[in-house]
Amino acid sequence: MAEAKVIDRTAIVRRAAFIALVGNLFLAVLKIVTGLTAGSLAVLGDGLDSSTDVAIAIMTLAVGFIINQPSDKEHPWGHHRAETLGTIVLAFIIMFAGFQLFESAVRQLRGGTVTKAPGLIALAVTAVSIAGKLVLALTQYRLGKKSGSAMILANAKNMTNDIIISLSVFVGLGAATLFKMPALDAITALLVSLWVMKSAVGIFREQNLELMDGNADDELYRSLFDAVHSVKGAGNPHRARIRKMASSWDIDLDIEVAGNLTVRQAHDIAERVEKAVREAIPYVYDIMVHVEPEGNGEHEEQYGLSAKDIAGGK
To answer: Is the pTM of this model over 0.85?
Structure first.
């Protein structure tokens, strides 16, 4: 059953990447050709931004194949972290695009360059781009939620950034032409660039927490401890560690059982704990339950959490 989930999830990741590839390739070619023929640098820049989305989609497709590879001697936990690394690369690409937009806007404001009003074709293509990016963003978000893929969800955020960039091109150039204020285009682009870079930093921080095996979600630990307490004979869950591997969870914890139980009886309790945890927390990749006799839960090691370490825990 667990293997089927992995296969289904990988198929969703690939589908999302293929949709993003085809959609962005069409928009990139359309905007670059229009920008060159209409002499609009704004539309051309928007097309080049879509070209980076094509590269992102190709990378996502590659990651979709990597994460489906079985574990091996060099990667005993499997290849799921390839998605995490891919998402970090995506964050840097988004940051680079935001910085380029910021730099262009500052240079235009300093130089006092007059923005050339685009023709109707350029504005129409930008409107098509906005509509196309909206469809792509909604599709990526839906498939990202369905698969639990941080990389697809990050790409959905990137698509949202692209919508705002295209809107700024459309509104900025339109307003500059209408109100005879060319600086409006650069000011809009400057604000958009800051928003894009903030989004990139947020994605990077989230993925960096995962690479450091961190987890800031207290509710996960509460669910873990509640699951242990629901099993008769299991007590004092401690030294609990939950780390994320792409969309799955890897869990280690210690529990206490009566000291007079046989190894078989203690093992059966540990198996019931594992089953209860899997029912309480979805997408668990692996669970390691260490059994100790009652009253032996004090350790000198300074890692892992117990209920008292969680806000509101006892």
So the answer is: no
